[in-house]
Amino acid sequence: MIEVKIKRLELAHTWTISRNSSDFKDNVFVRIQKDGIVGYGEAAPNVRYGENAQLTVHKIEEAKGLFAEHDLYNYVDLKTALDKKIIDQSCAKAALDIALMDWIGNALQVPLYKLWGLNISRSPLTSFSIGIDTPEIIRQKVKEASDYPILKIKVGTKDDEMIINTVRSVTDKPIRVDANEGWKIKEEALEKIQWLKSQGVEFVEQPMPSTMLEETAWLRERSDLPIIADEAVKTAADIPKLATAYDGINIKLMKAGGLLEALRMIQMAKALDLKIMLGCMIESSVAISAAAHLAPYVDWADLDGNLLIKNDPFSGVKVKDGQLVYNNKPGLGVEGNF
Ligand code: MG
Fold first, then answer.
1. 225 CA from centroid of ligand 1 (Å)
2. pLDDT band for position 17 (50/70/90)?
3. Is the Cβ–Cβ distance between 296 and 269 less than 8 Å?
4. CA 263–ligand 1 middle distance (angstroms)
5. Are 176 and 203 in contact, with CB atoms under 8 Å apart?
6. 36-92: per-residue pLDDT in tens?
7. Distance from the CA of 48 to the center of ligand 1, in angstroms?
8. Which of 20, 65, 106, 124 has a 20 to 30 A CA-CA distance from 173?
9. CA 123 to chain centroid
10. Which helix (H) or strand (E) holds 33?
11. What is the per-residue pLDDT across 135-189, written as a single tens digit (0 to 9) for each?
């Protein structure tokens, strides 16, 4: 049996990036129950990819029947069937895939990282994201983030210099920046990147629009900082063409359509010698915990979506001083109010 529910996640601060602004997110939660075993999943619909909560619920309802037709232990077959059934609204696929893998872990009584043979002591520290804001609020947010050793700063506006100067006025910890496709002219982007390098920035995420692959390749040739694809990559099929223009990719379960596709992306990125970042949307502990089970595989983690909300309905993998703290419970290791 599969149940679906929309829950409103309230943000601690208004969340602003170069594209848009929000005070809450309506995420879609899934619960699978079969043979007395439960699995939880979550979708975080994103307007950038034409997704919303109602469409996501609809897609999940449409694909539900596949779970009755398959033996859940044959989850590879079920993934193939989901790939055929859900083409857009990849977050809907992610919710079902996460719930499926939680169910598998619970059925086999192992945490997912153990199922995949991963050493959790290899998980990188997670960064904490600071959205676009006034200098006053940015200063306050950076101070509130004192427990996190690495910050990810949203840029991609005409005020980028002010934003970074404001952050640097309160902290000298390592920072990463995400322009969310906000820079449209390659020469200007290069100038910004070289200046950011002088400010102790480690890498730049999606400096230019995902469609500007040639311009990004031009930029990468000249940039002193690694350039990471985010909006330009959703699934494994997108990766080969990016290897000429980017140094790495940001994998998110919502774009990939779940854990199994994310695993495929990890293997492909490694084969192409690309760096791997593991990111998230605004998500509860369900989807964040799911991603955390893959973290030992990656170079950089940015799994802070649940830390930005006030009313997380679940708990699971936690963060202490930037370190992911796993609980050794089976599946995702999450519990809470569905
Ligand atoms: Mg990003």
1. 16
2. confident
3. no
4. 19
5. yes
6. 999 999 999 999 899 999 999 999 999 999 999 999 999 999 999 999 999 989 999
7. 11
8. 20
9. 15
10. strand 21-34
11. 999 999 999 999 999 999 999 999 999 999 999 999 999 999 999 999 999 999 9
Dist. CA 41 → ligand 1 center (Å): 22
Phi-psi region of 196 (alpha: psi -120 to 50; beta: other; left: phi over 0): alpha
Q: Where are the domains of the chain?
A: 2-108, 114-336
Residue with more model confidence, 126 or 22: 126
**Domain 114-336 homologous superfamily, CATH:** Enolase-like C-terminal domain (3.20.20.120)
Following DSSP, what letter does each residue of 194-250 receive, concatenated? HHHHHTTEEEEE--S-TT-HHHHHHHHHH-SS-EEESTT-SSGGGHHHHTTT-SEEE
Q: Which residue has the tokens 């495929």?
A: 264
Distance CA 265, CA 252 (A): 10
Overall pTM surpassing 0.85 (yes/no): yes
> Which of 154, 160, 199 lies closest to 177 in space, CA to CA?
154
% of the chain beyond a pLDDT of 90: 96
Does CATH place domain 2-108 in 3.30.390.10?
A: yes
Three-state SS for 327? coil
Q: pLDDT digits over 189-206, tens only?
A: 999 999 999 999 999 999
CA of 147 relative to ligand 1 center, distance in Å: 22
Cβ–Cβ contacts within 10 Å for residue 335, how many? Answer: 15
* Contact of 56 with 217, CB cutoff 8 Å: no
Tokens representing residue 211 in the block: 């469609």
